Amino acid sequence: MVSAQTTALPDLLGRLKLTAMRDRLDGLLDEAARQEMTLPEALALLCEAEVAHREERRIQMGMGIAKFPYARTLEGFDFAAQPSLDPKHLRDLAACRWVANGDTLLIQGPPGVGKSHLAVALGREAVRQGYSVLFTSAVALITGLMRGQAEGKLEERLTRYAKPKLLIIDEFGYLPFETQAAHLFFALVSRRYERGSMLVTSNRSVSEWGTVLNDQVVATAILDRLLHHSHVLTIRGDSYRLREKRRSGLLKRGSADASSDVV
Ligand code: ADP
Ligand code: MG
Question: What is the mean pLDDT of the chain?
Fold first, then answer.
């Protein structure tokens, strides 16, 4: 009886979709026996394996859905090279309370100072903590919305960008918006307002948004919503890439080869 049940166990676990438990069953049971666990302790060990596996899978899926262009972490950020940022403040932002509250985070500064790096790092942290995240460049976002409008699918596109708890818009302001694009961006910001968080990186300060959006009235309406509950990180200083090149002797101080600094 006992042995029949034991043989059937992997099959039963499979039918219950407890696949991590099933796949690691022998090892986990050996471990439980070695540690002379009680039955509840052994069950807890098996459940922990399943929970850890599911958590890992959830994070992997969330990372895929978020479409980060590359992997960056807060641990990989060299704070010593960036004295305009307070590591404590960043660690606090990594706790993602601002995401839970639906706040906006603006990261502004010149090219190469780590805006996208921090956007990706904070976005990955949000995924890890269970929030849905989508990363897009401002150009891809606007192109997507304009195409949606041209194809009669604007509603679908707006929903796609409005749904994630955190929408990251990278490189806002590198290219100015056409009037129609500014209106579509306003439609999106209104849709997300007080529902989801936005993280926007930009090489332009807030005072220049009117120029970027080619429309002071729309810019004011957008900023009014975005800045209602917001945090602003302003990064100053030299491009990290140029700095690294200088340090390795590839570039002399003063010969700031801006064209090689891809933004
Ligand atoms: P930005 O978005 O502000 O133009 P990026 O985030 O793209 O700059 O940074 C350019 C490159 O330099 C990236 O590969 C990034 O990981 C790296 N980088 C920038 N600042 C730092 C830093 N303080 N520590 C480590 N890497 C950095
Ligand atoms: Mg960038």
Answer: 90
